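User: Could you write out the 3D structure of this protein bound to magnesium ion? I've included everything you need below.
Assistant: Certainly. Input first, then the structure.
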Amino acid sequence: MTKNPTTEKIYQGIGVSPGVARGTIFVYKIADEAVPEYDITAEQVPEEISRFEAALVETREQLHELQERIATGVGSSAPSSILDVHISITEDPALLEPVMSRLGADKKNVEYIFNSVAQKYVTTLAEMPDEYLRERAADVRDVADRILRSLLGRQVRGLADLPPGTIVVAHDLSPSDTSSLDRKNVVGFVTDVGSHTSHTAIVARAMNIPAIVGLRDASQYLHDGQPAILDGFSGTLAVEPSQQTLFVYGQLAVKRQTVDDRLAQLRELPAVTLDGHELTLAGNIELPEDVPGLITAGAEGIGLFRTEFLYLKHADFPDEESQFQKYAEVARAVKPNSVIIRTLDIGGDKFHSDEATPAEMNPFLGFRAIRFCLANPEVFTTQLRAILRASAEGNVKIMYPMISGVGEVQQANEILREVMDQLRRQGIPFDENVDVGAMMEIPSAAMTAEIIAKEVDFFSIGSNDLVQYTLAVDRVNERVANLYDPTHPAVLRLIRNCVEAAHNNGIWCGICGEMAGEPLYTPLLVGMGLDELSVATASLPRVKEVIRRLNLVEAQELAAATLNTTNSREVLAMLNTLLQRIDPDLVN
Ligand code: PEP
Ligand code: MG
């Protein structure tokens, strides 16, 4: 943080969604100001103790209920170890005893006392040399938040109803947070944790609003109502900006608007290189609400519909009819272009409800996506029926996530065939020739792409996971974000393998991870022979611009050269030089 003579403060994080927003900060947590402080009499102490005990009981019940939901919903009979830890925190004498003793001594209301005891406890744990205890600090904070919510009743404001021009600041935003978000009034996101491929970043790009992640403890020191300027290109947040900063960003906004207006002219034009090589430039969505923005940006269909977000909004899995309505709505909206509907990819960083913290030690390596669906055939079958029914309404393709080898594709296809038989017997129409694809996002799949290609109609590379699994770098952890490198020679070789395997077998290969939306990488992806790029709304015009200013031949030469380098530094240098030449306005 740097200070200048005004009250302005500048913070630096990781810019993950382009654009500049001016707005007012709303901190999504229980701010200290939301916790009232008032005196009580000695006679009122027992009443406060009862309120506290009731809040503890309610919290324990919520946690048990959640545990049950995880056990049944995720198909595991083992209780979640994290929730066991959370339940034990509600009984932890180090947290409860000081509350009881201070109630009698300080004669203050219980939420005030509990908040200050909990904060002190969290700070003490966070400073412990022992790593296990340090990690417990986050658990105590979660549970304390839950107890406070119970004590405060409905007083805590959520994300569903925000004033216009809100910059949401949070420790992190979970999929269930963003699925309840008041999308029309939010102009930007700032989170303490995260990286380019974390959920907050993906949602911000889908909403076409700027975002900064990895601002460490911003949610602790920023306050509701502070004016701020958020620069999603550079990752800079200016709080209480000075006149000078307002002026600089005002100028920048004009310049960027000019570039955006120029790129908006490309909307109706195809994604074709100067020498006539045409690609499909499609868009990624999480909810049907994302479609109009993508169409306005000029997307040729949907290359990735992340259907798990329909599930995250509800406590139960949605039934066939409600899924069918959503899928059909999107299919009709993009017709005659296609929509690739990805089957449920729950797990990893996407959970069923906001309380449902991962029940596994390594959720990204755990019971996720196709693994979950193959183990829960009723959930899978319901979704496949809904997708197939929607295929009669437009151009629908089906895609399986997290494929690690051909066996999973064969199993999934077998279930798909049974569902098709069932629909035929019932006389329900669907597209008999519906295309089926596999996501290439696990190195074992990318390395055996030749085998998998024989079982599907297309591949789509999920670079977010492919990079994570290839380099063993957590895609949502800001502390290793500098190691998350899509241009690593190992990643490039796996991408090449997928494309070659696809083409050798007469099928096409696209890419729908965040790498596809970064204009810097566009020449490389075009040169490597990708047939489709599927990107977020915020990225689409820039990527189209690069494709249209590129020669396929030079892109192929670049791809060949990058595959001959030994490190990504050289690759990035080549890509930067090329982008600078193609359109310097796109260089950040
Ligand atoms: C990916 O992994 O690149 C991808 C597109 O899927 P998700 O980000 O939903 O895991
Ligand atoms: Mg993925």
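The two ends are 21 Å apart (CA to CA).
User: Perfect, thank you.
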